Amino acid sequence: EALFLLLHNEMVAGLYRAAEQGEGENGRCTTKLESMGFRVGQGLIERFTKDTARFKDELDIMKFICKDFWTTVFKKQIDNLRTNHQGIYVLQDNKFRLLTQMSAGKQYLEHAPKYLAFTCGLIRGGLSNLGIKSIVTAEVSSMPACK
């Protein structure tokens, strides 16, 4: 678990450090992190679902993501899953592991999106491999909680 946290922090820091040295731009860093997460999410879902029965509907897939997938990757379930029953789902983690090492204060709030891009890609890649085209965004209003 500690290795994943260290690797993730170094991926983010390394990409943004390269961008500051003129090898890219910040928007590209977020896209690259999201793309890496997408590929990892596809692979993880393939492994996690190889012995499971097919899902009935989108809601069952989202429940799987919130319980099994999230637990395997982040060692806890999603705290809250909400839906408008029209294809929009809101997953809320009140103590997101990739943000807990950062201060709970407001001073790091502007850096939080960097640390969520990989996870957005992870979810989007998993959903894609389960047959759901999606747009995944992240929102942080207070650290270390995210939606």
TrEMBL record:
One of its GO terms (biological process) is nervous system development. CDD domains: TRAPPC6A_Trs33. The gene is TRAPPC6B. It is found in: Endoplasmic reticulum; Golgi apparatus, cis-Golgi network. It holds the Pfam family TRAPP. This is Trafficking protein particle complex subunit 6B. It comes from the Eukaryota. The lineage of its organism: Eukaryota, Metazoa, Chordata, Craniata, Vertebrata. One of its GO terms (cellular component) is endoplasmic reticulum. Component of a transport protein particle (TRAPP) complex that may function in specific stages of inter-organelle traffic. Specifically involved in the early development of neural circuitry, likely by controlling the frequency and amplitude of intracellular calcium transients implicated in the regulation of neuron differentiation and survival. Its main location: endoplasmic reticulum. Keywords: Endoplasmic reticulum, Golgi apparatus, Neurogenesis. Belongs to the TRAPP small subunits family. BET3 subfamily.
